Amino acid sequence: MPIIKNEPFHKYLKAMFIDFALIIIGYLLGSIPSAYVVARLAKGIDIRDYGSKSTTGANAARVLGFKLGFTAGMFDIIKGVIATLIAVLVIDSSIYDSSDALFEKNVLIALIGFAAIVGHCFSIYINFSGGKGAATFLGVLLVFSPWTALAIFVTWWVVIGVTRHTSLGNLVMVWISLLTLMFVHDFDFGHTLLGILMVPFIYYTHRANVVRLLKGEERKLGKKVKLDETAATEEPVASEEE
User: Fold this and answer.
1) Residue ranges per domain, the chain?
2) Considering 52, 53, 69, 241, which has the largest number of Cβ atoms within 10 A of its Cβ?
C-alpha cells in the first residue's frame, strides 16, 4: 500500500495537523525518563551518574535494586502502550477522517510508536539522553502487534537466560520482531516499516555493546553497582550496556 494517498493537498490539512500532533505527543510521552524519575524519588540521585549512566530498567535494577528497576522498566513499557493506544483511539474516532489522511493508518501508528521509542532514547526532558529503546518498543508492540510482542519477549528472556547479556537479548529480538511483523501481518507496509526502522535504530543505540560483545568484555546482568560509584569510575553512557 502507498505511504501517502493520492488526494488533493488541501484535503490533508486537518489530518496533517492531527498526524504530526500525534507524532509529537508520542515523542513527548516516550521522553518521560522513568528510571531517572524513580531514582530521584526513591534515592535522591541522578541515575545517569551511576552504572551505565543510562535511564534503562536494567541500569535501574543494577543501581537501585530489582524492585525499583522493575518499576522503571514497567513504566518504560507502559509509556509505549499509552502512546500507541492514544494513536489508535484518535485514528478510529470521529474527529479523524481517514479518507483524507496523509498516511495510511498502520503507517501512522508505526511512526507514532517509533517517535515514542526515539523519545525514550533521546529525551527532551534530560538533555536528549535516555535508554536503549527495547522496553518502549515492547510497549508499542503490545498494542500494534501483540504476537510480535510475545515473540520478542520470549526471545529476550531465552537469550538473557543463556548469556546473561541484556544487550545481546535486544540485538537478537529486534531481528525476530522484523520477521514477525512482516509474516504475521502479511507484509503490511506499516508493520514492516516499524520493523525496518527498529533494526538499525537498536543497533545504533547498542553500537558500543556490539564492540564489547565481540571482545568478550560485555557486562552481565546481575552485577550490582554501588551508589558511591561516580562518573569518574565509569565509561561514557554510549559505551555501556542497557
Assistant:
1) 9-239
2) 52
